[in-house]
């Protein structure tokens, strides 16, 4: 499934997906409905944390830019790739409004 995101779309992690930090720079995710584990590292950890509540791609990028020395264009490209992968894995979904989660 091809996913196209805009900077204003609202995204949120599925509430039933569990995340547990591993060391300083990784998080293990458990999708209990599928019985699968995933891992995120580096900027992916900041992205995952930001997806706990409905947010936008722009807000996620601002969060990553605050933690890492990265220019905006690179950040946007990398954050979008992480979010698309999380959507394709079924861990994140689009919401119609920021209050819907």
Distance N to C terminus:
22 Å
Instruction: Categorize the overall geometry.
Output: globular
User: Tally of extended strands?
Assistant: 6
CATH secondary-structure class: Alpha Beta
Helical run tally:
3
Q: What class, by secondary structure content?
A: alpha+beta
Count the domains. 1
Residue fraction in strands: 25-35%
Write a compact overview of the structure shown:
This protein has a single domain (10-95), classed as Outer Surface Protein A, domain 3 (Alpha-Beta Complex).
Description:
This protein has 101 residues and is α+β, with helices and mostly antiparallel strands. It has a single domain, classed as Outer Surface Protein A, domain 3 (Alpha-Beta Complex). It contains three helices and six strands; from the N terminus they run ββββαβααβ. The protein has helices spanning 43-50, 57-67, 72-88, and strands spanning 10-13, 18-22, 26-31, 36-41, 55-56, 92-95. The chain is globular. 23% of the residues are buried.
How would you describe this structure in keywords?
3-stranded antiparallel beta sheet, 6 strands, alpha+beta, 3 helices, about 100 residues, Outer Surface Protein A, domain 3, globular, about 35% helix
Please render the helix and strand layout as text.
Elements: E1 10-13, E2 18-22, E3 26-31, E4 36-41, H1 43-50, E5 55-56, H2 57-67, H3 72-88, E6 92-95
Antiparallel strand pairs: 1-5, 1-6, 2-3, 3-4
């Amino acid at each position: 499934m091809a996913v196209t995101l805009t900077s204003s779309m609202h995204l949120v992690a599925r509430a039933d997906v569990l995340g547990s930090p591993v060391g300083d720079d990784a998080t293990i995710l458990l999708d209990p409905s599928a019985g699968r584990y995933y891992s995120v590292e580096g900027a992916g950890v900041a992205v995952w944390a930001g997806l706990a509540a409905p947010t936008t791609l722009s807000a996620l990028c601002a969060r990553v830019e605050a933690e890492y020395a990265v220019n905006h264009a690179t950040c946007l490209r990398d954050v979008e790739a992480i979010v698309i992968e999380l959507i394709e894995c079924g861990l994140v979904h689009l919401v119609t409004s920021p209050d819907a989660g």
